[in-house]
Specification:
A 5-stranded mixed sheet has the order 2-3-1-4-5, sandwiched between helices. It contains 4 helices and 5 strands.
């Protein structure tokens, strides 16, 4: 059974990065990092969206216990494909998905979280139901996730 407070889930966040120094995301929560935008070796987020998504997924609530992620015990993999403006390329998004699948066993990655922005990059438009998205459609413009 999944214990949302135990570290038995690893989520790959494909987005603008992760601020691993954030009080709710620090202390080793980010297990691995790849940067296809600026090739920096350590996690960062020059936009903020990826850190926001990471907090929703796995924020510990240390900064404010009213804002705890849905799985505060989960660990994260940061896969930066979007720049400081939230823009990116299809090739970087595809490379990040490929990286997550190839490293699934290395890190026990169970979920890939990818926001709708990447779906638009991949499709060239807002994705239609059942097209361009392995995760399917969700409400609004929030993150989409697919289990591995």
């Amino acid at each position: 059974m999944f214990d949302r407070h135990a570290c038995n889930m690893v989520v790959a966040i494909i987005d603008t990065g992760i601020d691993a120094a954030h009080v709710d995301l620090n202390n080793g929560k980010v297990l691995a990092w790849q940067d296809w935008v600026n090739n920096k070796p350590t996690p960062y987020d020059d936009h903020g969206h990826g850190s926001h998504v990471s907090g929703i997924v796995a924020g510990t609530g240390t900064g404010d216990p009213n804002y705890t992620g849905v799985a505060p015990g989960a660990a994260l993999i940061g896969l930066k494909v979007l720049d400081q403006n939230g823009s990116g390329t299809l090739s970087n998004v595809a490379a990040a998905v490929d990286w997550a699948v190839q490293h699934k066993s290395d890190y026990n990655i169970r979920v890939i979280s990818m926001s709708r922005r990447q779906m638009r990059i991949m499709c060239g438009r807002r994705p239609a139901r059942g097209r361009c998205s392995a995760a399917g459609e969700g409400a609004g413009h929030g993150p989409q996730a697919v289990g591995l």
